[in-house]
Specification:
The protein is mainly alpha-helical. 72% of the residues lie in helices and 0% in strands. The structure holds 2-acetamido-2-deoxy-beta-D-glucopyranose (3 copies). This is CELL WALL / VACUOLAR INHIBITOR OF FRUCTOSIDASE 2, cell wall / vacuolar inhibitor of fructosidase 2.
């Protein structure tokens, strides 16, 4: 009898207590839903959770996180392009292509800047369009190097495209669209 009571009490305590921290505090259901709609769930979750605000963020918070990631990624690549253009060991024909890259990235950065301003003023209607422009700029960039052996930014383009696509999905949280 005593043993039965012990088992019962243990059972009740266990089932009534909050879930353990490992599974309860670090996940955000909204992130699951968003990442589920991207082409790579793992990439999306890793990127979003790289920001400490993500576990407790609502849709508005996740918009800041995702546009912030895309913006930082785009500007870091922009800096890298500037560095390559200053590099004397890089051939002139490669530099001509890099200039195309530079043009595409400045388009991406200004679209993301505009999106950030919109978020700050809680203007949501053109977020998805702006995120789409950033993804398209990464694509243009990729095609500028199509067939070329020299393609120093291929991985970065993929990153910006994937991050921008997360932004597109997050944007649709505000404008209806798919939710
Ligand atoms: C994610 O997608 C899978 C398969 O389409 C589905 O079974 C699952 O319920 C989805 N999860 C969420 C959180 O939407
Ligand atoms: C998905 O993303 C993860 C993490 O970034 C990466 O390791 C993996 O190769 C990606 N999968 C595909 C199919 O691109
Ligand atoms: C861009 O984002 C990817 C994925 O989050 C990250 O691995 C990469 O380091 C970032 N690149 C830059 C230049 O910020």
């Amino acid at each position: 009898m005593a043993r039965f009571q012990f088992v019962l009490i243990f059972f009740l305590c266990y089932t009534l207590s909050p879930p353990p921290a490992a599974t309860g505090s670090s996940t955000n259901k909204l992130v699951d839903k968003i990442c589920n709609r991207t082409s790579n769930y793992t990439f999306c979750a890793e990127a979003l959770y790289s920001d400490p605000r993500t576990p407790t963020a609502d849709a508005y918070g996740l918009a800041f996180v995702s546009f912030g990631l895309a913006y930082l990624n785009a500007t870091a690549t922009q800096d890298y392009i500037a560095q390559l253009l200053n590099d004397n060991t890089i051939a002139a024909n490669h530099k001509r292509r890099l200039k195309l890259y530079q043009h595409d990235y400045s388009k991406a950065v200004s679209a993301l800047e505009e999106a950030y301003d919109d978020l700050n003023s809680e203007t949501f209607f053109q977020l998805a369009k702006l995120a789409g422009h950033a993804a398209a700029a990464a694509d243009d960039c990729q095609s500028a190097f199509k067939g070329a052996h020299y393609s120093p930014l291929a991985t970065m383009n993929d990153c910006l495209k994937a991050l921008s696509n997360i932004c597109v999905i997050v944007s649709k949280l505000f404008t209806g669209g798919i939710w």
